[in-house]
Amino acid sequence: MKNKTTIAFVLLFLLPCFVKAQKWEGLANTPAMGWNSWNKFACNIDENLIKEIADAMVEQGLLDAGYQYVNIDDCWHGERDSLGFIQADPVRFASGIKPLADYVHSKGLKLGIYSDAGRATCGCRPGSFGHEYQDALQYAKWGVDYLKYDWCETEDINPIGAYTLMRDALRKAGRPIYFSMCEWGNNKPWLWASEVGHSWRTTGDIFNSFDGIDDHGDWKAFGVMQILDMQEGLRKYAGPGHWNDPDMLEVGNGQTVNEDRAHFTMWCMLAAPLILGNDIRSMSQETKDIILNKEVIAIDQDPLGVQGLKFAAEDGLEFWFKPLAGDDWAFCILNRSLEDKTYTIDWQKFNLTDEEVSKRSTSFDSVEYTLKNLWEKNPKKANVGTTKKAKSVTIPAHDVILYRLTPKTKK
After folding, report:
1. Same domain for 180 and 93?
2. Set 116, 145, 150, 260: catalytic member
3. Does the active-site annotation cover 74?
4. Which stretches in the chain have pLDDT values below 50?
């Protein structure tokens, strides 16, 4: 009897050591939507900017459209206190992060913050290495809702261990915090991160170019098309609660309206997080029309949670399909070329079955779909027929057409 009691006591004592921590569930049933400071402002940030962005998120209709996170990227940090707890920059964020979070929350929004798994951030501020639990506790105390966790200064650090450690720390801190892993895809996080983070970067940084590479010697940044190509083969790893992240949006930062529309559309087809990176306080109407298009956003936020697939490519055109809830499909033609392209859609050429993920079939040989042009501004002109017969379309250079297909008749 004594031995049984001793064994029971030992098992009870050791049980916590074998309980696996979980990431916070329910925070990413659909891809995250919000704004991040880095693409437009880099290190030129302060608390007044973040407050103004929060105000603009509401005033410009972004909150109503689904954008909820206001994310502070690198360079908000001050020093650690005598106990090792990170503090905000005393000049740029003089009021501290907690009052800023309270302000953002008062607008119906959520606050995101940034750190790094290494010894220093990419902007040379204090990293979280060796302070993971302290930082997680501090973020929870401040009321933070989202953590972007970068990968600079990580020599000899194991990525799986580092990101799992911060996941555990966030969970133990007791506040639900979305965990955005920014490991750049170097260690193929799609293979191991579904139980660690809510999303993971699949590539290096994006830069404000539709098609190009910015070579810095020891690292490179990539244009929209290069990052799109890097998503090949990754769709089977994404789904509700765990998303491939091809990096933040450059919409509104100076590319053409056609390119911005194509960029936004392809991120929606990828079921990617929609994290804006422009100055939303002073957007053009063209930018607003793109990022506030609720029917295009619905493609990204579709509850089925399936990443789109590239079915074919021909003469500078790419043909993409994305299965949606309710037997609908999104169909996109991307024109990567520098010339307008006219193409006749023969729907029978696009009979396909998504064997890899959804197991759904387009079945154009037996199902007739209605077509809605999601980028048509005039609602009376948006419904453009059905798939019963071929359709001729013109896709401008560096642009897209995007249809929502809804079954009309079945066998």
Report:
1. yes
2. 150
3. no
4. 1-2, 4-15, 18, 411
